[in-house]
Amino acid sequence: MKLFTKVVTLVFMLAGATxxxxxxxLPFGSPKEVDKVSKTDISKAVLFATGDINKCxxxxxxxxxxxxxxxxxxxxxxxxxxxxxxxxxxxxFKGSTFAxxxxxxxxxxxxxxxxxxxxxxxxxxTF
Length: 127
Hints:
The protein has helices at 2-14, 18-23, 39-48, 50-63, 97-108, and strands spanning 70-77, 83-88, 121-126. Mean pLDDT is 79; it is low at 3-30. Strands 2-1-3 form a three-stranded antiparallel beta sheet, covered by helices on one side. By secondary structure, it is α+β, with helices and mostly antiparallel strands. It has a single domain (33-126), classed as TolA/TonB C-terminal domain, CATH 3.30.2420. Helix 4 packs antiparallel against helix 5 (97-108). A hairpin with a 5-residue loop joins strand 1 and strand 2.
C-alpha cells in the first residue's frame, strides 16, 4: 500500500495536480497555506471531481429525463479551505435534483487554507 501511495503521489505531482490532491484530503500530499486559493486551483479540483459531478447529472436525468439546460453554481473558498457561499444562480433549476446534488458535492470540497477568501467561482454545468 505504501508503494501505491508513493506512485500515485508521483503521478499527481507530474501532472501538476498537487493542489487537487491536497484539496481532497487524500492520504498523501499536505495542504499548505496560500495567500488565496486561485481560480486555476479551483478549476483543477473541478476536473478532479468530474465523476461526482457526472453522477449528479445522471441522477437528475433519471428523475427528470426531459429537462435540459444550463445550471450555474457559484461558490467561494473561505480562509479555512472549506467552500462557502454556495448558490445556484440559475433560478429555473433551484431545488432540482441536480442542483441539490451539485451543492452537496461542492460543500464536501476542501482546499488549502488561505490568508484571504477566494474570489467567487462560477461553475457552469450543461445537461
